[in-house]
Amino acid sequence: MTEKPIENHAPSARPADIPGAGPADGTADGPAEAGSASEAQQPVEFEVRVAPKPGAFMLTGGVLGVILALISAWLRGGTEDHSMGAVFGFLAVLFAIIGVGVGAIVFLIFDRVGRKRTQHIYAVKETDQETGSGVTK
Question: Which of 1, 65, 95, 120 is the most exposed place for a label (fewest CB within 10 A)?
Fold first, then answer.
């Protein structure tokens, strides 16, 4: 018999809150079955959430900073002492560092929002009769 995972979005949910899961101390209701069979029927809690990748946010911020530096150097032009290439190089380094910092801050905001949307699910580990290995379903 295959059981599907039970979705439970309450952060305070325990395996005991699931019908047929037994008391919170992990013991089964009634007489104990074979040792591994009773352990295999205990649901395990998992946290599922979408986590952003920090490198993508910081890389995007750095690239946008370099593009902004290119536009700034082109609009401002060179001076008598510095060519437009030198101005662009200086601004590219400065704006890229600022862009990476802004990208990291945006990542932290999205990560905080993603943590609030964490879902708690329960899965029961079943033993495959053919191979004898444990499968989480």
Answer: 1
